[in-house]
């Protein structure tokens, strides 16, 4: 570990970032060039004292997880992230592991979305970050581990994941999900994360195996997506997708037609926030003992 160069690199990248670059207000009394140390600590989910000690060349040896968090907080490119790891005394992450690192341009767009329902996924369907409203809408998809991090894997391996979509949409969604995974597998080949997911699903899901034998290709994007939510019931949303130039990541933004019932439900979710999901679907489209929209509005 090269403490002096690590400290210098962190300081230089912090000073090169402006509050507007990360969605923070500038304020009237800002004298610091670039971001403040406490702002970087907040963006990286580390303590202010820990980050200050790193910049002062007296901090502990950071773990790979901490360096990855700092790379995200400082909006580093993949090349800059590799350099940070080397300064920290580690080998640069392999390309497959870079799937956890959000591309800086994509992250800047995400930061500007504020209160929208938006999330960033990598090419194998692993959610990298979500806005607060996206968590309320879909649940915390960043909390999964292992193969379950991939929405492709969950769709075929976890029946509960389908409870959030109308049953009549399941067949079409299965082909869409399989086709998306097939595209990732075709790009990455054997030994990749996509191949690992494919092998696991071929061994576990007869439905996936049947679709896979047909060589599915991604079909036209379904701009309208119907969801069944445990708190507010059925929603009909428009899903806009922004692809990164290298196709490694995508930004999904969910909106509802202004004045529609779904728009009202989305507004309500922004107030309610995230609560644990239940896979026990009621006949009226709600879940478990969840209250109705009318009951929620009346509270």
From TrEMBL:
Domain of life: Bacteria
Gene3D superfamilies per UniProt: 3.30.450.180, lambda repressor-like DNA-binding domains
Protein name, as recorded: Helix-turn-helix domain-containing protein
Chain ranges of the HTH cro/C1-type domain: 33-81
Pfam families noted in UniProt: HTH_31, MLTR_LBD
SUPFAM superfamilies attached to this UniProt entry: lambda repressor-like DNA-binding domains
Matching InterPro entries: Cro/C1-type_HTH, Lambda_DNA-bd_dom_sf, MLTR_LBD
């Amino acid at each position: 570990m090269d403490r002096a160069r690590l400290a210098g690199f962190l300081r230089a990248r912090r000073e090169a970032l402006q509050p507007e670059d990360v969605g923070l207000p500038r304020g009237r009394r800002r004298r610091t060039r670039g971001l403040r140390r406490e702002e970087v600590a907040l963006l990286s989910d580390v303590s202010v004292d820990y980050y200050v000690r790193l910049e002062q060349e007296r901090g502990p040896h950071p773990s790979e997880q901490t360096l990855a968090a700092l790379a995200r907080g400082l909006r580093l490119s993949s090349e800059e992230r590799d350099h940070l790891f080397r300064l920290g005394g580690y080998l640069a992450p392999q390309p497959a592991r870079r799937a956890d690192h959000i591309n800086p341009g994509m992250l800047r767009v995400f930061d500007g979305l504020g209160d929208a329902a938006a999330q960033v996924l990598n090419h194998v369907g692993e959610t990298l970050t979500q806005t607060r409203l996206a968590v309320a809408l879909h649940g915390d998809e960043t909390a999964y581990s292992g193969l379950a991090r991939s929405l492709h894997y969950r769709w075929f391996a976890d029946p509960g994941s389908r409870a959030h979509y109308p049953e009549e949409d399941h067949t079409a969604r299965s082909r869409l999900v399989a086709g998306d995974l097939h595209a990732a597998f075709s790009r990455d080949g054997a030994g990749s994360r996509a191949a690992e997911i494919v092998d696991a699903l071929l061994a576990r899901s007869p439905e996936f195996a049947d679709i896979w034998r047909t060589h599915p290709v991604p079909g036209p994007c379904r701009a309208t997506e119907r969801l069944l939510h445990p708190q507010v019931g059925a929603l009909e949303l428009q899903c806009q997708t922004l692809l990164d130039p290298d196709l490694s990541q995508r930004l999904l933004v969910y909106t509802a037609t202004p004045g529609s019932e779904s728009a009202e439900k989305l507004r309500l979710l922004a107030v309610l926030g995230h609560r644990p999901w239940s896979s026990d679907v009621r006949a009226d489209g709600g879940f478990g003992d969840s209250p109705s929209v009318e009951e929620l509005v009346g509270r």
